[in-house]
Amino acid sequence: MREFISVEEARALILDHVSLLPVEQVPLDHALGRCLAEVLISQDNIPPFPNAAMDGYAVRLAEVQQLPATLRIVAEVRAGQSPPEEIPVGACIRIMTGAPVPSWAEAVVPLEWTEAGPGDTVRILQAPLAGENIRPLGQDVQAGERFFEVGQRITPPMVAMLATLGIAEVPVFRRPRVAIVTTGDELLDAGQPLKAGHIRDSAGPGLAAQAQWSGAQVIMRQRVADDSAALAQAVEQALEADVLVFSGGVSVGLYDLVRQVLDNWGTQWLFWKVRQRPGKPMAFGLLEGKPVFGLPGNPVSSALCFDQYVVPALRRMQGQQVVLRPRYSAVLEASTPKKAGLHFFTRGVARLGKDGRLYVRDTGLQGSNLYHSMVRANCLIHLSESLEEAPAGIEVDIEWFSWTMEP
Ligand code: AMP
Ligand code: MG
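The joint structure predicted for all components is written out below.
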């Protein structure tokens, strides 16, 4: 087991030790947010037939060179209908948006460029260009074309595209099943009144929410006392999951039993302690091949560790190639605490300045027990290990929290 490693080493070790989840087929209506398990190949051309981009008249170009041109309307085709395969000289058809354009037609003259002529005729006032207002076959997707990538997270526009391509069952990686176990004799449930020396378990609900936010399924969430037997039982139940997350009890205190109990279960530890603040005592290992995270109990520490380590692991397990959020350069508007030797995850509020640059300041006191430092933040400021101090004016890297909208 490695001890007191860098943030980058910790993340690399985690990502190296997680494996892809099994593939399952889900109905398209349930595919949103899931990660594709296969590159897909289109069976069809999209559009599947040339069709009208506007309501108007399908014409032959030679017959609309002398303007105004009077043409006889011999048919009307609506979307969903079939057009006549031939028409006489001097004729045209009235066509609606989305209706198939027959092969003899060279353009669609929009309604706005026409006026009614005598009887069944129409007067064309303006000549279209070749192909104008005809949406060609396969303009969007060619039959046989490969589209999307393995691991791509299905977005609403992707759902629409899958539908148009006739993919009613979508191959996706199974959603990661996460177990969350919070530990501490001092903890109460959110619904319980406070009593002497106790606080409410906030890490449990918070971590479960983060897991859900990142598309995982929380199959178990349990709060246990600092008691080896109770903890051992929780581990057994947690093994139903793909990822086990413990919070609290990973430090060096007398009642920090999590690592000990997981040891007894045969956990192979990969690291303990990361050169970071908050979250230094974080531990990571494998139990029955499953990733096990021992996060510190302080709610801000556990939230940041989950965000920075567990979420990338969940993404990688679903085949996602990019597991980290992008970082942007911002100007630090006011100095913020920093010391060399630890990577600081400082919570910040960033804004876009009139000069087009990003400006950021911290959210105030950064104690790992202070909820305000998290809930006020729209971004995370990365202050690298080697940085000795963080005075106003320096450039820092930030990343937006996944739950904030960029400014
Ligand atoms: P621990 O990591 O167990 O030493 O806990 C560190 C600090 O976080 C202590 O002040 C605990 O009371 C607090 N804490 C531990 N677990 C939770 C939790 N689930 N929710 C809120 N605070 C917690
Ligand atoms: Mg504790």
